[in-house]
Design a protein that fits this description.
35% helix; alpha/beta; Muramoyl-pentapeptide Carboxypeptidase, domain 1; 11 helices; two-stranded antiparallel sheet; six-stranded mixed β-sheet; Lysozyme-like
Amino acid sequence: MVTVDRRTLLKAGATATAAGALGMTTTGTAAAAVPTPTIHPTSEWGARPAAGPIVVENHKPTYIVVHHAVDPPMNNDFSLARAFYVSRYIQNLHMDKNGWIDSGQQFTNSRGGFVTEGRHRSLEILRGGTQHVQGANVANHNSEVIGIENEGLYSTVDVPQALWDSLVGLVAYIAHQYGISPEFIKGHRDFNSTECPGQVLYNRLPELRTAVGRVLGVSVARAEAEWPLLKPGATGRKVQLAQEFLRETGFDVPTDGVFGQSTKDAVAALSARAGLGRDTCNAAKAETGFLGADVWPLIVPSGRSAAAWRSDLSKI
């Protein structure tokens, strides 16, 4: 079997180059006026003090990353009090279960459309527009992303309209502050092997990019293809190709196009060997054995760019 070091992993796992992330092209003679959303700071929702120093990156983020917050279980309480409760719940989960110094995400968006500051100092630093607070929401990419947790599980159901509207406004404001083009609005799964932000919400990311571009008054280029996500139980040609690549990497798996237990075990073993952490958006169960954006680069044959592989896989 091949061995995979972290430097190779980080290089291979990049979803896009940073070139073009800044310096958006406006569709008119001047950039659109972008409303400043109401963001409730940590002091309002009763946040615990951070358990360690907050790291401030001395550069702008490259990507805005959309998450779903599986826990606490969603309901139809759309109040501000519920938004504050969700913020406290997530912070407790991240600090007490994950062992992080604070909430992992910079901002949280509730089903009622209320936005709160997640990690301490995120709002202050965002307003400056030249630096960003380092979070803990996208493994191996936290120095280059700013993350938004959206209350709820969106694997099979759609987001409430209030959440969608506040998400558009928040993302547009962040993009405006940092000069991030809409094509660099990503989902968590574009970096790690996770379903996050849920299939339904993930499918709406092109719509989100268009909506944000409209607010910013900028043209939106077509986002490049991303690595597909394969989960245990999946079938088809993509699974068969992955199995062939796993065999070439040294794993004894079938090539029947069925993502069964042996394929899941091989992916889990490869992920562990490469130091890939399990998804942390899903506290109810670990998404072990998922084959996504940080696993594909470890198994595809060399000699072609990641972009070329992503493009070909997207056409299958």
